[in-house]
Structures are given as C-alpha cells and as structure tokens.
C-alpha cells in the first residue's frame, strides 16, 4: 500500500481524468452542440483543457472560444441543454478506464476501505458510465457536481461524505487529476493524491502541491 494510505479509512476518487478518459465523448457532445448552433467544431485537444468545473462551465468555455467574448447567459443555457442531449445519447462510446484503476479498486475493496466518488460531472451521468465500464459496484456513495449546492474546489462534497460515514477528515484521502481536487481536499482536511495523466487546464497538477503524485493508480496499492 502507498504510504499516503497509512491510517486512511475513506478514499474519495474523482472521475474524469482520474478513473476514466472521458474527453473523447465529452468532445463529441461539445462539437455536436457547436455544430448544431452554427459554429465550427473545436476537437478533443481543446476540450481536454476545459474539463474540470462541470458541464455548464465546459459549455461556457467552448462558446467563449468560438464567439471570442463572454457568451451571454441565454446562449449558455440553450447550448447547455443541447450539450446534455448529445452527451446523454452517447456518454460512454469512446470513454476508457485508465490502466491500473481496476487493480487499485480491487485492492482497496479487499482491504476494507470505504471507497466513494466525487465528480463535478452532472450526477445523472455517473451510473450509466460506471455501469457501462463495470465500475459501479466499487463505490459506496457517488456525488455529482449538482448533488449538493457546492462543487469542488469547495470542500462541502468531501466533508459531506466524511460526515456520512463518521470518519475524521484526517483519515480521508482525495484522489484526483486537477487543482480543484487538490484544493477541495486541502480545504476539507483530507490528504491529497494526484494522478499526473489527467486534465488540469494544461498545467501540471504538481503545481497545486498535492501530498503525493502517481503516474498510475497501480502505485496506490
Ligand atoms: O465534469 C467535469 O468538469 C469534471 O469532472 P471530474 O470532477 O470528475 O473531473
Ligand atoms: Mg477530474
């Protein structure tokens, strides 16, 4: 077991960029929305840098890139509905589980950790994606970006789970790919572990100073 797991009872995983490479399907939905609105598609590489603050922010960033200024609220709202429709139609066609993830989850389960998931993705997508990838059974609780009034980097979703399971935050570990996961973890009093391969707005996640960094979740166990 990784030294950061010492004394830990609850592990909270981020989803996009940590457990799954979901950008191909997210980009297809963003591009579907843009084309439908009469804009040019933007492609996967750009969408990768916009993921991390939930679907509304993703749509807002995509629109800002094509209109060249801050998009107005009614355009964001209408475009978000289009995005959700596209993403609902194909949330897991090209999405893949990263190497080492199943091994890590199997080992954590066998060791009796409370394994949970906290994503900024809308909650409605969590189960369809986890079920399609045969990952649902590992998680005792899952929270989406719209499950509570606040989302990461706010510590509320993390503290919600610590309270739910009666675990001291000091015995909880947040595992994620972005500065939002590290910041939420630090503010909640969790230990923080970052994966180096995910999505972090084009910056190395190590600049957020997590307590540890791994290149594969295999290193966790
Ligand atoms: O949907 C997003 O923007 C990011 O989701 P995540 O919190 O699972 O990385
Ligand atoms: Mg992420």
UniProtKB/TrEMBL annotation:
Source taxon at top rank: Bacteria
GO CC term, one of those recorded: cytosol
Active-site feature positions: 14 (nucleophile)
Pathway: Organic acid metabolism; glycolate biosynthesis; glycolate from 2-phosphoglycolate: step 1/1
Enzyme class: hydrolase
Alphabetized Pfam families for the sequence: HAD_2
MF (Gene Ontology): metal ion binding; phosphoglycolate phosphatase activity
EC number: 3.1.3.18
Residues that, per the record, bind Mg(2+): 14, 16, 177
GO biological process, one term: carbohydrate metabolic process
Cofactor: Mg(2+)
Catalysis: reaction(s): 2-phosphoglycolate + H2O = glycolate + phosphate
Gene3D superfamilies noted in UniProt: HAD superfamily/HAD-like (3.40.50.1000), Putative phosphatase, domain 2 (1.10.150.240)
Keywords: Carbohydrate metabolism, Hydrolase, Magnesium, Metal-binding
Stored HAMAP family: GPH_hydrolase_bact
Protein family (similarity comment): Belongs to the HAD-like hydrolase superfamily. CbbY/CbbZ/Gph/YieH family.
NCBIfam families: HAD-SF-IA-v1, HAD-SF-IA-v3, PGP_bact, PRK13222.1-2
Function text: Specifically catalyzes the dephosphorylation of 2-phosphoglycolate. Is involved in the dissimilation of the intracellular 2-phosphoglycolate formed during the DNA repair of 3'-phosphoglycolate ends, a major class of DNA lesions induced by oxidative stress.
Protein name: Phosphoglycolate phosphatase
Native species: Salinicola socius
């Amino acid at each position: 077991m990784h030294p950061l797991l010492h004394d830990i009872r609850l592990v909270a995983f981020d989803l996009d960029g940590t457990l799954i490479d979901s950008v191909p399907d997210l980009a297809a939905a963003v591009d579907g929305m843009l084309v439908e609105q009469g804009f040019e598609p933007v492609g996967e590489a750009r969408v990768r840098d916009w993921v991390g603050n939930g679907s509304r922010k993703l749509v807002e960033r995509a629109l800002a890139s094509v209109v060249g200024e801050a998009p107005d609220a009614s355009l964001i709202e209408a475009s978000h509905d289009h995005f959700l429709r596209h993403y609902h139609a194909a949330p897991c066609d090209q999405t893949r589980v990263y190497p080492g993830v199943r091994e890590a989850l199997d080992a954590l389960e066998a060791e009796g950790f409370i394994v949970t998931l906290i994503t900024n993705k809308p909650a409605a997508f969590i189960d369809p994606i986890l079920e399609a990838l045969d990952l649902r059974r590992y998680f005792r609780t899952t929270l989406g970006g719209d499950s509570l009034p606040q989302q990461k980097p706010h510590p509320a979703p993390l503290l919600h789970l610590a309270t739910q399971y009666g675990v001291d935050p000091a015995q909880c570990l947040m595992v994620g790919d972005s500065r939002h996961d590290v910041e939420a973890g630090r503010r909640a009093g969790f230990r923080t572990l970052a994966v180096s391969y995910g999505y972090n707005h084009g910056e190395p996640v190590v600049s957020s100073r997590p307590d540890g960094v791994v290149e594969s979740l295999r290193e966790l166990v």
